[in-house]
Design goal:
With about 375 residues, this protein is α/β, with parallel strands linked by helices. The chain folds into two domains: about 1-30 and about 195-355, no CATH class; about 40-190, no CATH class. The chain is built from ten helices and 17 strands. The chain has helices at about 1-30, 170-175, 180-190, 195-220, 225-235, 235-265, 265-305, 310-325, 325-330, 335-355, and strands at about 40-45, 45-50, 50-55, 55-60, 65, 70, 75-80, 80-85, 90, 95-100, 105-110, 110-120, 125, 130-140, 145, 150, 160. Strands 1, 2, 4, 5, 7, 8, 10, 12, 14, 16 and 17 form an eleven-stranded parallel beta sheet that branches. Strands 3-6-9-11-13-15 form a six-stranded parallel beta sheet, with no helix packed on it. The longest helix has about 40 residues, at about 265-305. Mean pLDDT is about 80; it is low at about 35-40 and about 185-195.
């Protein structure tokens, strides 16, 4: 019987790990910003571009940094409060933002149009430059083969420090069409940033399946163990929480240590990596036991309000359905993801600590009392 119970733990743990990995992969596929391939727009907070891009590039972000090794074969459009350009652009470049910097190594083999609060233009531009904004500076070392068109309310705010720099009058036609392409790229980027409906539905179904499946599986395969864990959590709540907190600190500390080793002594860090993976699997197993217990207790409370039945399988099923509402919030409102993860960790923590104290439900925690007669 003991061997059967041990096999049940292995099955439960393996399914928990595989389920969470599948959930993570699907969530990344649904919510990750589109890859920078072809003309697909990139949407995000802080975007960094490097390497070769064989088509047009459109970026909508908080900050954009184009590294020196970046090569864009097509046109480039950037909409961001802060943009810093390096690398080579073989097409036209359009930038809309508060602060724009073209580093000395920047090469633009087409025209460039900037609308910025402040801008520093350097590097080599083998085309025309159209600028609108408040404070625009052209560096002394900037090499511009075409004309500079300052479409600004106050042209005196254009500080051209090039020796003998030539500045033309504003090209109204170019100014009128300045935002056409960047606006269309922004609209496309906004549409791409919304995860597909079918992806969200698939992710929600997987969340419900895991939320219900794990507690049902635990009760089906390891009912005795779950009852011992539940008894330990009820009788020694503080000890269960302390065990969970201590194990969490150990996991975080050892993970940080291994990460530090990978940076300072790569050989030692790589040698310790398998230990870190085992530690992670152990933490997932404890949290899975804790979540199953939370679903069981939640199901008991809900069922007790409507029926006198006490079937543990029913409790696990109902509790899993109720708790599945928590991660579903993160699917509907992705900005709450970290809050949802903290809530789920807290819910699973006490049960995980009780599972640790009872050695995954193998032993019963019985208080001993000495009565002197």
């Amino acid at each position: 019987m003991k061997m059967t119970n041990n096999r049940a733990v292995w099955v439960f743990g393996a399914l928990s790990v595989v389920g969470l990995l599948a959930l993570g992969i699907l969530a990344r596929a649904v919510f990750a910003p589109p890859a920078m391939t072809g003309a697909a727009p990139q949407v995000g907070g802080d975007i960094m571009l490097s390497g070769a891009y064989d088509d047009d590039v459109a970026v909508l972000a908080q900050t954009v940094t184009v590294l020196a090794d970046a090569v864009v074969a097509g046109d480039a459009s950037f909409v961001a409060p802060t943009t810093r350009l390096n690398g080579r652009f073989d097409g036209n470049v359009t930038v809309l933002g508060d602060s724009v910097v073209l580093d000395p190594n920047t090469v633009v083999n087409g025209d460039i149009a900037l609308n910025a609060g402040t801008a520093m233009i350097d590097g080599q531009i083998n085309g025309d430059v159209l600028v609108t904004g408040q404070n625009i500076t052209i560096a002394a070392g900037a090499r511009i083969s075409g004309a500079v068109y300052p479409c600004m309310a106050d042209v005196s705010r254009l500080n051209d420090t090039r020796p003998g720099g030539l500045v033309s009058t504003c090209d109204e036609a170019a100014r009128a069409g300045l935002f056409n392409r960047v606006e269309s790229a922004s609209i496309a980027a906004g549409l791409e940033s919304v995860p597909p409906l079918m992806g969200r539905i698939a992710l929600a179904l997987l969340v419900i399946a895991l939320s219900v499946g794990l507690p049902v599986l635990a009760v089906t395969l390891m009912l005795d163990r779950m009852m011992r864990i539940r008894a330990a959590a009820r009788e020694r709540l503080r000890d269960s929480f302390s065990a969970f907190a201590a194990s969490a600190c150990i996991v975080v500390g050892l993970t940080a240590l291994i990460t530090l080793l990978l940076g300072l002594v790569p050989a030692a860090g790589l040698a310790a990596t398998p230990f870190a993976l085992l530690l992670g699997v152990g933490a997932v197993l404890l949290l899975a036991f804790g979540y199953a217990l939370a679903a069981l207790v939640c199901g008991e409370a809900v069922v007790a309000r409507f029926s006198a039945t006490h079937a543990p399988l029913t409790h696990a099923l109902v509790g899993g359905l109720v708790l599945s509402l928590i991660p579903l919030v993160a699917i509907i409102f992705p900005s709450t993801t970290y809050i949802v993860l903290l809530v789920l960790t807290g819910i699973s923590g006490i049960g995980g600590g009780a599972a640790l104290l009872t050695r995954l439900g193998q032993r019963t925690l019985v208080r001993s009392y000495f009565v002197q007669g």
